[in-house]
TrEMBL record:
The keyword Manganese does not apply. Its main location: membrane. CDD domains: SLC6sbd_Tyt1-Like. This is Sodium-dependent transporter. GO terms for cellular component: membrane. The keyword Acetylation does not apply.
Amino acid sequence: MVNQRDQWSSKIGFIMASAGAAIGIGAIWKFPYVAGQFGGGAFLLLFIIFTLFIGLPMLISEFIIGRATNKEAVAAYDTLAPKSPWRITGRLGVIGCFLLLSFYSVVGGWITIYTALGLTGNLISDGTNYGKVFEQIIGEPFTVLIGVFVFILMNVVVLNFGIKKGIERANNVLMPLLFIFFIILVVRAVTLEGASEGLSFFFSFNFKDFSAEGVLYALGQSFFALAVGFSCMVTYSSYLSKKESLPTSAMSVSIMNIIVSILAGMAIFPVVFAFSLEPTEGPGLLFIVLPNVFGQMAFGSVFLTLFLLLFLFATLTSSFSQFEIIISAFEKEGKRSRSKIVWILGLLTFIACIPSSLSYGVLADVSIFGKSIFDATDYLVSNILLPIGCLLIAIFISFRMDQAIVKREFQMGNQLSLKWFKLWKFLMRYIIPIIILIVFICSL
């Protein structure tokens, strides 16, 4: 059965796909506005620490579980711990990814709308209040729903082609281009008058605006940005060859994610301060800043459109991984029609997106614990379900999974000494579960 499953054609293909799963709205859209709300540089520092010492070990863990079984998330836990309650970990991932898609696809819809406006040349104009433009777009129900529909449709088309011909081929071409255009954006942003104040905000460790909630958000961001906690990477690594090094691959993905997050901050905060915007602007921060910075460039409209296209792609590569864990769970390793599952899932996702899509428009007055539907769903996924998922995975791989299999998968395909395995195992068994519990409890 393993030989019948699709596989990544190369290590680079796997790393690009995994990086694509991680480098999406988590790093480009969400990181800047959350960092802006919780102290800039202080949030960045904690995010990097959490990513390297908690997110990275968690990513390795998901890689190990997936490749050890060559099965999607639900079947992987059933295989490693048959007839036990641990199967709930994989099912939590499926449910969590569906909830995640219910607001993630809304942001994807916003990006789709902005990309269309960029292509028509109607986005940048002198004297435009881009904050008002954003409010008008997300407050118009029909426009938002069309954007969400098109975004989900693009996912469905690519996912129909499978792993190698669909997800991998798309990632290999456009992920490198995203880095190139990000660097162009950063260079322009940091040369704006007043940009130094934004860089100071982003790289100064000012903890006066920090709180226990900020620590939780930094931990949640490290999970969200690396796509760990919902076993997405269990599914992705199940398509990986036994020849590849899991720790090396996980480190590559983590470093790329940190770099993109830093680039996002360097692109956003200089513009925020240069144009006297508020770093605590929230979810709309990126959509207000991007037109401002490109409006100051020669051929700005062209560059903005190209960047939006690539940003849209980065958003798609992340959503691919979220859809894939659900598709694989229902596909039953080729026993059911992948195409039929993809189309049905696309329709159900669009329906689930409607409340979040309208939460800044006709449902703006509806609140859940003082948050909009969109923000409440985001909080539930990023700050509650993701930490719970990570805690379950940490306990599973440390105390339930056969340690001989864990060690074999960790060391396979690399020359890392035994001390690195022992360090990773110590973090997963004694440090990470305690940190997750402490931060989670303090936030309640």
